[in-house]
Design brief:
Blueprint (H helix, E strand, L loop, with lengths): L7 E6 L1 H4 L9 H15 L4 E6 L7 H6 L4 H24 L5 E5 L8 E2 L2 H9 L3 E5 L9 H12 L3 E6 L4 E2 L11 E2 L1 E2 L1 H7 L6 H10 L3 E5 L5 H6 L6 E3 L5
Parallel strand pairs: 1-2, 1-6, 2-5, 3-4, 3-5, 6-10, 9-11
Antiparallel strand pairs: 7-8, 10-11
Helix pairs in contact: 2-4, 6-8, 7-8
């Protein structure tokens, strides 16, 4: 077996990715796909933490634009991430992977409270840690959660699992002439407004030198390929991959 390039990672999943082709809700086939691929890299000795969005159930920004109080809408979005986290936990444990959901909002009946040292200890014991409920604060995205948690647990890279195979000049699903980037600097992402992450998350990654790899979740085996250092997707960092 090839030696993994990364020993501790954050896997960032969008809520939309979990919806699969349904467009809404949780697609069990997609959850199983993620679980199988994560199980594979766990067996390679990689420490895996997951941050999942909630856009397949509720988006705080959308609720706010419809007239709802922004903080209330964001809290609802955090609760949606908890639902997705529990679905992922169930999928992983069906494959025999010991998993813990750590929530930034206290709800002890379904998840452990987020404590940094506890999260690191779970990872050291070979458990998958799923960070739920964002940062626990409104006005912050799950992208920012991924950047913050990556810094806290000293992850080597953030894997951004998308429905497309990298970062493009435009949305490739809408414009077939969009051009793909193989690598980008943090500053280029910010200046070009490419939407890899929001500006807060990108700046946090830049300040802490945490690289990002954007890749297609729907192509089987891509998580393993990234872990082994294969050049797929788009690499974002201070230097090229």
């Amino acid at each position: 077996m090839n030696e993994p390039k990364y020993k501790r990672i954050i896997l960032k999943l969008s809520g939309e990715a979990l919806a699969g082709n349904m467009g809404y809700g949780i697609d069990q086939e997609t959850v199983n796909n993620v679980a199988v691929q994560v199980t594979e890299i766990i067996k390679m000795g990689v420490h895996v933490a997951i941050v999942v969005g909630g856009g397949n159930i509720w988006r705080g920004i959308k609720g706010s634009s419809a007239g709802m109080d922004r903080a209330t809408a964001d809290y609802m979005g955090m609760l949606a991430t908890v639902m997705n986290s529990l679905a992922l936990q169930d999928g992983l444990e069906k494959h025999g992977v010991d998993t813990r959901v750590l929530s930034a909002i206290d709800m002890r009946q379904v998840a452990e409270p987020y404590i940094r040292r506890r999260a690191i200890r779970h990872l050291e014991k070979g458990r998958v840690v799923i960070f739920a409920a964002g940062t626990g604060n409104p006005y912050f995205s799950t992208d920012t959660t991924a950047a913050l948690r990556a810094a806290e647990i000293e992850a080597e890279v953030i894997l951004m699992a998308k429905r497309v195979d990298g970062v493009y000049t435009e949305d490739p699903l809408k414009n077939g002439d969009a051009i793909k980037f193989d690598h980008l600097s943090y500053i280029e992402v910010l200046n070009k407004g490419l939407g890899v992450m929001d500006s807060t998350a990108t700046s946090l990654c830049m300040d802490n030198n945490i690289p990002l790899i954007v890749f297609n979740l729907n192509e089987w085996g891509n998580i393993r390929k990234v872990i082994l250092g294969e050049k797929i997707g788009t690499y974002v960092g201070r230097e090229s991959q």
